[in-house]
Design goal:
heterodimer; A: alpha+beta; Calcium-transporting ATPase, cytoplasmic transduction domain A; 4 domains; seven-stranded antiparallel sheet; about 50% helix; about 15% strand; disordered N terminus; B: mainly alpha; 2 domains; two-stranded antiparallel ribbon; 19 helices; 4 strands; magnesium (chain A); magnesium ion binding (chain A); transmembrane (chain A); HAD-like_sf (chain A); cell membrane (chain A)
Chain lengths: ~675, ~550
């Protein structure tokens, strides 16, 4: 089960990001980020004014150019953050693209046509609906559905999972993905993707950020940032009039510097990097989002519909206890049960042997000359005939009763009933016609699931278990796993109804599914995760696709969505809180000439008006680059209630945002003085 | 002693507001016993009281009603010389002053660029101004109730019927309270007569003309409706407007009564009183903080003028305590009536008053207007910090999305636009500068105060400022319109957009909007987004004046 380490190779992306941060200064690209666009305009203006002063030998040219340098750096840092985020994805895209080589494939005229009659075609020219014959060693040219045959397919190029998986016609495992290779046997596949529209193409586009569209919350946040920029524009543009009334003038360069320090450059510069990095985290988790909207919606989810099998339980019943009949030694039962199961290679059989090993300390060896008796649908028994004539059997209650002609003694019968009532499956073990005891087979809840659901509950997410089991069994497992609710004997229609009911109550629903009959529910759910192994219909209906086909991934997706939103909120809060200190740095500097008393607003004790303004501008640029790692990594997120999260984040990013710049600006001022730069 | 007096005042205020909120909740839900009268009035006006409006219809009704109110008031003011009830033979108002006054009363600002006793006939006072005192307050209350519905009512498309809300606000809330207060004030000695001015000989033998008129009725509604426009020029500092300590106390309570009640009404309509208490708490914390600053500065006085409290511009009857309380209340509540000259307060007391107005009159604020103004900050606070809990921000179960943020930002822009852009022009244009009385930062504060007061629809002024010049009557008139309708329309649109959303149930993942954490967040949002924008101009005005005063310089 080795997974390739597919975190992007970090060494190559920094030079590329540095190059990109300069090419991104192209106004057409900058325009998409209004805050940075405005910053670039101010930087240009400041540069021109500085140069004019330089050539006319006017005083103050040095300061203007110094300010301009840091303003440009601020824009470049923002570009760098975005380029770095994109670069991490691009490295991944390159490895993906490598699997997308052009090959020649055999085209069939019909699903049942003889492969010998196939015509050859280029893999890149395939159109939806065409039929392709593939055998061992072939690379699957594009996405498709298996119409005939069965093959083991190596999907490691896509999923990183090295063990091959079975893909066959019909059923829920009929889809193949472009870029994977056929490991054995053959299939006839129908192409389902138009050229350039396969999953591989989509994934490459996604990780490169080429098709990145702003998500709803990002759009709203951008509007707010533009609004704040406008407000500060009013503040700065009206300031010369107020200053001249007060008998002072403020140089344009200083006004520009004040403006840039006040507008939310920190969040404005990091906003797109946060978004790209969030998608990248999803890609790392091997999930493809068809839209960024789905990732945000994942953070908003109120109700999670989880399939029991594979998500909550291991999916196979396992021996939970061996209960001897009255008067029978527990070790004798364990030994008999183990021997009867030695030849049984089903997961249930293996689990009985394992349980017996726990009780006996070792697995009994297969006795010489023993004959295994296989399970058949008629006898519904299996076991072992020993050379000494002993016959060991295990099987369903009525089958063992028929075999032995005995009914279990009262105490044992009561145990059997109790097992059935708790949702488990009882198996009787007999030697000859003596009933030795009962094996309690049950669905084993995965370890850690209960804690996971408790976390989800703390986050305000309701979990609903979906199962085909009867209500009795479902209730027992639901109680053990700690889910909030369950849907027993579930049909696709019931799932769809449940989703609609939840949504009518104002809740957002997430679910995962793989079968074609899941498609309507996947489409209806606000967040639908389809298993990559699933049918094309399910994958089409979902808005996220899990390449590992792991149903627990749904929980990861929710966490990635929440972390994305939290990162944005935290940096916005931090950015806005920064303004308090910046006012205290710049205002006394520009007004002290008019009213010397206003020097008392210089609470940081900055050395001179020039150093104060420079320190604020430098802090503004440095805090941006300092926060890039946080933007890319995402704010640390531990599941907790909203109130706890708010308290914690408000303390760190709100209070921190108030205090940090006071310290930072003062420190920069001290450096500037020490270096004799201001 | 001081603390006890304030504590008693706040106790009485909160107690009365809680009771009033309960009554208001019933009134706005419709009281069957009163429905007959409402129906009669509304049917008579051709309104179907059963038909609720979507937000554009509601906004249009508000604008149309206020436009008609403006035209009628403007006509009365211009033609008062030829109209009846004019015993002192006062002539018609000049066009620019009539425009300014009409806008001022229709927008619930009550900025007075005129002196009532000299420039208004009794008809103008009663049928003109007093009517607008009622209906402009009623408009604010109706809009607030519609906005509250947008946030709290079940999913739908309509936010109520403006005409019904207006009639209910005026008939069952403003009118009964005004009658009670007017009777009380008349008992305390406020005149209520249609007879003209009295001529009397003073002790020194000179003839003096003592103005009087139907004052008690107008003063009652000017306080209750956070209008603030006095019957006499010097407003509630005039002994006929505010004769006794009892009348002063009653008026102080009346200024804040309905605005405070609106917080609690919000909680009731939201179905969770904690939501209303949280908003009240945020407002109260800021109010008390401001009041403490004003009180301490006024009680300490100005050493340059000798020992003791700062009594310049204050009535001996009221002293520093009652003047401070009034100054804080009237600027916080967008009332604008004064019982002392704000111009003469200490610089940082003036700063508090300026900030109260500049943040958009959201500390209790105008009747109704204060609440919907605060809800604007709530939307911004929830959006900013809401993301930090890892969900799309939501308030009362409804998501705050791009549309609401756009509208909130639009509404929010009106404050810096009115105050900074308006003020910057006033600080440059020579015709405008003629209004400034004092030198240096104090004169600067006069400009700033006038434009803050107009944008916030407050109506009070720094005394020395010459408001009657054509430049300011026109500019301030336009800015009052901006400060009123550029907030009302987007807020109604937000309400109309919120009410279409399904309310999500509250879970432990829901952003908590009650409790101390949210109160802190809301206060910080108001201070950082609201007040901080004006830090540069405040530095040039009151802060510069204070630092100069500390250095022994006065203006």
């Amino acid at each position: 089960m080795a997974k390739h380490d597919r975190s992007a190779n970090a060494s190559g992306i920094y030079p590329a990001a540095i190059r990109a941060s300069v090419t991104k200064l192209d106004p057409r690209q900058l325009w998409r980020n209004p805050v940075m666009f405005v910053t670039a305009i101010v930087a240009t203006m400041t540069t021109l004014l500085g140069l004019r002063d330089l050539f006319t030998a006017t005083a103050g040219a040095g300061v203007a150019l110094h300010i301009a340098f840091w303003l440009w750096l601020c824009v470049i840092f923002a570009d760098f953050a975005e380029a770095l985020a994109e670069g991490r994805g691009r490295a991944r895209a390159d490895t993906l693209r490598a699997t997308k080589s052009e090959t020649r494939v055999r085209l069939l005229t019909g699903p049942d046509a003889d492969p010998g009659t196939a015509s050859m075609a280029l893999s890149t020219s395939l159109r939806a609906g065409q039929l392709v014959y593939l055998t061992a060693g072939d690379t699957v040219p594009t996405d498709g559905e298996v119409l005939r045959g069965m093959a083991s397919v190596n999907e490691s190029a896509i999923t990183g999972e090295s063990a091959p998986v079975i893909r066959e016609a019909g059923g829920d495992r009929s889809s193949v993905t472009g870029g994977t290779t056929i490991a054995s046997d053959w299939i006839v596949m129908k192409v389902t993707a138009e050229p350039g529209k396969s999953f591989l193409d989509r994934m490459i586009a996604l990780v490169e950020g080429a098709e990145r569209q702003k998500t709803p919350n990002e759009i709203a946040l951008n509007i707010l940032l533009v609004g704040l920029t406008l407000i500060f524009l009013f503040v700065v543009v009206t300031l010369p009039a107020f200053a001249s009334y007060s008998g002072t003038t403020i140089p344009v360069v200083v006004l520009g510097a004040l403006f840039v320090t006040l507008i939310p450059t920190t969040i404005g510069g990091l906003l797109s990097a946060i978004g790209i990095a969030g998608m990248d985290r999803l890609v790392k988790a091997n999930v493809i989002a068809k839209s960024g909207r789905a990732v945000e919606a994942a953070g908003d989810v109120d109700t999670l519909l989880l399939d029991k099998t594979g998500t909550i339980t291991f999916g196979n019943r396992m021996a939970d206890a061996l209960i001897p009949a009255p008067g029978v030694d527990a070790r004798r039962l364990a030994e008999a049960a183990a021997l009867a199961s030695l030849a049984d290679k089903t997961p249930e059989g293996k689990s009985i042997v394992e349980k017996a090993r726990e009780m006996l300390g070792a697995i009994p060896a297969m006795p010489h000359g023993a004959e295994p008796v296989a399970f058949t649908a008629q006898t519904r028994l299996s076991g072992l005939d020993l050379a000494d004539g002993r016959r060991l059997r295990k099987g369903a209650i009525d089958a063992v009763i028929r075999l032995t002609g005995q009914t279990p003694p009262g105490a044992l019968a009561a145990q059997v009933d109790a097992i059935a009532r708790s949702g488990g499956t009882p198996l009787l073990v007999a030697e000859g016609d003596v009933i030795l005891g009962v094996v309690h087979l049950k669905d084993i809840v995965k370890p850690g699931v209960r804690e996971r659901f408790a976390e989800l509950r703390a986050m305000g997410i309701r979990t609903v278990m979906i199962t085909g089991d009867n209500p009795l069994t479902a209730a027992a497992i639901a109680a053990e796993a700690g889910v909030d609710d369950f849907l027993a004997e579930a049909t696709p229609e019931m799932k769809l109804d449940l989703i609609r009911r939840e949504q009518a109550g104002g809740r957002l629903v997430a679910m995962c599914g793989d079968g074609s009959n899941d498609a309507p529910a996947l489409a209806q759910a606000d967040v639908g995760v389809a298993m990559n192994a699933g049918t094309p219909a399910a994958k089409e209906a979902a808005n996220l696709i899990d390449l590992d086909s792991d149903p627990t991934k749904l929980i990861e997706v929710v966490l990635v969505g929440k972390q994305l939103l939290i990162s944005r909120g935290a940096l916005t809060t931090f950015s806005i809180a920064n303004d308090v200190a910046k006012y205290f740095a710049v205002l006394p500097a520009i007004f002290v000439a008019a009213y010397p008393g206003l020097a008392s607003l210089n609470v940081m004790g900055l050395a001179s008006p020039t150093s104060a303004i420079l320190s604020a501008v430098i802090f503004n640029a440095l805090i941006l680059i300092a926060l890039v790692p946080l933007a890319l990594r995402g704010v640390r997120y531990r599941p907790a209630s909203a109130a706890a999260l708010l308290r914690r984040n408000l303390l760190i990013y709100g209070l921190g945002g108030l205090i940090v710049p006071f310290i930072g600006i003062k420190a920069i001022d001290l450096c500037l003085v020490a270096l004799n730069l201001a | 002693m001081t603390f006890l007096a304030y504590a008693l005042y706040f106790g009485a205020l909160i107690g009365a507001a809680l009771m009033l909120a309960a009554w208001m909740a019933r009134v706005y839900a419709g009281i069957p016993a009163l429905a007959g009268v409402e129906r009669l009035l509304l049917r008579g006006a051709g309104v179907n009281p059963g038909r609720d409006m979507a937000w554009p219809g509601y906004a249009l009704a508000v604008l149309a009603f206020n436009l008609v109110g403006f035209i009628v008031l403007y006509a009365i003011l211009r033609g008062q010389g030829a109209l009846p009830l004019n015993p002192d033979g006062i002539g018609g108002m000049a066009p620019d002053l009539a425009f300014n006054t009409a806008v001022s009363f229709v927008t619930n600002t009550n900025w007075q660029a005129y002196s009532g006793e000299a420039q208004l006939s009794y008809l103008s006072q009663m049928a003109g101004l007093t009517v607008q005192n009622f209906v402009s307050a009623g408009t604010g209350m109706a809009v607030a109730v519609a906005v509250i519905r947008g946030f709290t009512a079940a999913k739908g498309t309509t936010i109520g019927n403006f005409w019904v809300d207006l009639v209910r606000s005026v008939l069952w809330i403003l009118l009964p309270l005004s009658i009670l207060l007017a009777l009380f004030l008349a008992w305390q000695g406020v005149p209520q007569t249609l007879l003209g001015a009295v001529t009397a000989s003073g002790l020194e033998g000179t003839e003096q003309v003592i103005a009087r008129g139907p004052a008690a009725a107008q003063i009652a509604i000017k306080q209750l409706g956070t209008n603030g426009g006095g019957f006499f020029g010097v407003n509630s500092a005039h002994p006929f407007e505010n004769p006794t300590i009892a009348s002063n106390l009653a008026q102080s309570l009346a200024i804040l009564l309905i605005p405070v009640a609106f917080c609690f009404l919000f909680g009731r309509m939201a179905g969770d009183r904690r939501e209303g208490r949280a908003i009240f708490a945020a407002m109260a914390v800021m109010f008390v903080a401001g009041l403490v600053v004003i009180h301490l500065y006024e009680a300490a006085g100005n050493p340059a003028l000798g020992l003791g409290a700062n009594m310049e511009g204050k009535e001996q009857r009221f002293g520093a305590l009652l003047s401070s309380l009034w100054a804080a209340s009237t600027t916080a509540a967008s009332n604008g009536s004064v019982n002392a000259m704000h111009d003469s307060f200490m610089p940082l007391s003036g700063l508090v008053m300026l900030v109260f107005m500049q943040i958009g009159e959201v500390i209790f604020g105008g009747v109704g207007a204060g609440l919907y103004g605060m809800l604007l900050y709530v939307v911004l606070a929830v959006f900013l910090a809401g993301l930090m809990v890892g969900r799309t921000p939501e308030y009362l179960g409804r998501k705050v999305e791009a549309r609401e943020v756009t509208l909130a930002v639009l509404a929010f822009l009106s404050m810096p636009l009115g105050i900074l852009v308006g003020g910057a022009i006033a600080a440059t244009v020579p015709q405008a500068l003629a209004a400034v009385q004092d030198a240096g930062p104090h004169g600067f504060s006069e400009i700033l105060y006038a434009y803050s007061s107009a944008t916030g629809n407050n109506g009070s002024a720094f005394g020395g400022w010459g408001a009657a010049g054509t430049w300011h009557t026109t500019a301030l008139g336009l800015i009052m319109l901006l400060g009123r309708y550029a907030i009302i329309v987007p807020m109604l649109a937000i309400a109309g957009s919120m009410i279409r959303k399904t309310r999500a149930p509250v879970t432990s993942g829901t952003f908590p909007t009650h409790g101390p954490l949210f109160v802190t967040l809301l206060i910080l949002t108001v201070l950082i987004l609201g007040a901080l924008t004006f830090f540069p101009v405040l530095a040039l005005g009151p802060i510069a004046e204070e630092t100069a005063r500390a250095a022994g310089q006065s203006f």
